[in-house]
Amino acid sequence: MTNKKHDDFLLKSLTSGNETGILEIYKSIYPKVLRYVLKHDGSEDDAKDVMQKGLLQLAVRVQTKKLEITTTFEGYLFTTCKNVWRREAKLSKRRVTNNRVIDLVHEEREIALAAFEQDQWELFQEKLLEISENCRKILKHFFNKTPYVKIAEIFGYATENTVRQRIFKCKSKLKEAIQSDARYKELKSL
């Protein structure tokens, strides 16, 4: 089976409840999700929850709009799960733990928020590909928190100030590309 056909099979399995396909999804993607969650201060139970929420979010997205996955199914689902975990981790930092309080988070709201964040992520990724390769490389180092001194070294810039200027210009180009897209206005108004 070709990769595209295989990805279509996995996506269809998810929406139709095909056990063979769903087991294959778990076997290939869950170990990566588990490693990611454990590496980022989570537990095995957290990883299971993240996987479930990622699958649920993907299934809902497929049913509510025509979803076109431009990467692999595995890559798309893993990114979705990473975004779910980031959101969970961010929420847990803001929560006050009290054993007598019941968490009133609604599942529908969580799914809607996850879908919204995924739309934002997809727009960001798409527009990142529209800027120059040099800008993408510089921003990759910037987003990965590479020190300016190291970035200057890598790209052969004379000073850290040059790096700051270049990062500013690249971020401006990316921001302009994102804001000029009609989807940005839709996402902004939500």
User: Spans of 5+ residues with little confidence (pLDDT < 50)?
Assistant: none
In CATH, the architecture of the largest domain is Orthogonal Bundle
Summarize the helix and strand pattern as letters. HHHHHHHHH
Annotation, overall tally of beta strands? 0
Provide the CATH superfamily of the largest domain. RNA polymerase sigma factor, region 2, helix turn helix motif
Identify the CATH class of the largest domain. Mainly Alpha
Helix/strand structural class: mainly alpha
Q: Overall pLDDT, averaged?
A: 81
Number of spatially distinct domains = 2
Strand content: under 5%
- What fold name goes in the CATH topology slot of the largest domain? Rna Polymerase Sigma Factor, Chain: A
Helix segment tally: 9
Question: What would you note in describing this structure?
Answer:
- The protein is mostly helical and 190 residues long.
- It has two domains: 1-105, Rna Polymerase Sigma Factor, Chain: A, CATH 1.10.1740; 130-190, no CATH class.
- The protein is built from nine helices and no strands.
- Helix 3 (44-64) crosses helix 5 (107-128).
- The protein is globular, with a radius of gyration of 19 Å.
